[in-house]
């Protein structure tokens, strides 16, 4: 893990419900569980949500708010 990622991890982990490595794993699992195929490359550009994407504050907020969940809307 490079220095930029270390800084982001140190910033995001305290924001988790369980502020430790297990909490981060739970966050990643929650994202994977609710994310639409778009976030795994099923889009026009082949873009995927990577580790850096998960380290963003707005990604954590999105998981908490269910932003990534598929609601059956095309």
Describe the structure.
It comes from Salmonella infantis. This is Replication protein. This protein has 74 residues and is an all-alpha fold. It has one domain (3-65). Helix content is 50%, strand content 0%. The protein is built from four helices and no strands. The chain has helices at residues 3-12, 21-34, 51-54, 57-65. It is globular, with a radius of gyration of 13 Å. The mean pLDDT is 93.
Any descriptors?
single chain, 74 residues, mainly alpha, 4 helices
Compact description:
This is Replication protein. The protein has 74 residues and is mainly α. 50% of the residues lie in helices and 0% in strands.
How are the SSEs ordered, and which strands pair?
Elements: H1 3-12, H2 21-34, H3 51-54, H4 57-65
Low-confidence spans: none
Q: Give the topology string: H per helix, E per strand.
A: HHHH
Helical segment count: 4
Strand residue content: under 5%
User: Which shape, going by the Cα principal axes?
Assistant: globular
- Mean pLDDT comes to 93
Number of strands: 0
Task: Provide the helix percentage.
Answer: 40-55%
Number of separate domains: 1
Structural class by secondary-structure content: mainly alpha
Radius of gyration, in angstroms, nearest whole number: 13 Å
User: For the report, how would you describe the main beta sheet?
Assistant: none
End-to-end separation: 37 Å
């Amino acid at each position: 893990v490079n220095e930029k990622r270390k800084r982001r991890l140190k910033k995001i982990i305290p924001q988790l419900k369980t502020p430790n490595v297990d909490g981060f794993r739970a966050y990643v699992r929650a994202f994977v569980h609710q994310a639409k195929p778009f976030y795994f490359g099923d889009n026009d550009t082949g873009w995927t949500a990577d580790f850096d994407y998960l380290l963003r504050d707005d990604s954590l907020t999105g998981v908490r708010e269910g932003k990534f969940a598929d609601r059956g809307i095309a």
